[in-house]
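Notes from hallway chat w/ T.B., transcribed later so I don't forget. T.B. wanted the structure written out for a chain they're using in a teaching module, and asked if we could keep both sequence and structure tokens in one place. Agreed to drop them here.
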Amino acid sequence: MTAVVEWTDSAPLALKGRPQRIVPLVLGFEPICEAISVRGGSRFRHLMEPVTAAAVVFDRGWVLLDGGFDPSRVRDPVRRAASFDYENYLPIVPPGDPLVDQVAEAGLDWRDLAAAAISHAHLDHTGAARLLRREQPLLMQRREWEHVCSADSERAAFLFREDFDHPQLTIALLDGDVEMAPGLTAIDTAGHTPGHQSFVVDLPGRTVVLAGDAADLRANIDRRLPTGSTAAREDEVRAEAAIRRLADLDARAEIEVWPGHDPEWQPWRDVIEAR
């Protein structure tokens, strides 16, 4: 049975030192209409958006941020039909297990994984939970977990409770901005979902902010426009505050904000083109 604990019961994570590098991961693709990614965008124009994640590598140990799809759900015809019955939506997972394969290519060992964290609970971010052991907690905002548990319809909320239901999983609940480890901070960017969080990674000489779905595209940041999708109408104001927060961070010379689904953002393009 999944264990749900307070963040303070999981800290400190089994890491040494500070972040030394970030490994971009592209774990799949999905066609998304522009209006979902940018408020006021076209409902006709669709983008083939990468499903992204990142490994943050410390002096010793590493942390996974987001987790893509569970490939078995995408590839099984019965589960696929039941799981992804949305108009004009077609999840794509490249051959193999992209998460496992790219982690191995980066020279990382799953036994050294200290924790995973998800920006939010949408179905294209929760697939890594299947790989975690009890001592490798999944970190998420308390409001997001409450949303997972209380949503009237999994389909309408774009989530799979099953992804969070296995006996080796520990979920640790965060409240707002939290330093998860020296040089790695979760920040509150709620709006797209009630408990959405982004991640600030302080690397030698620069800082990277992984926006998650608070900014799908670079256009969100440059134009200070939130994504076009929120769980409820009352979240729209929070989404506006989140994109302002991210744009303000990006305006600082030492910080770069990575949009979560932009097919033209260079770190994601580099992964795609290398393969």
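Follow-up for T.B.: The radius of gyration is 17 Å. Might be a good example for the class.
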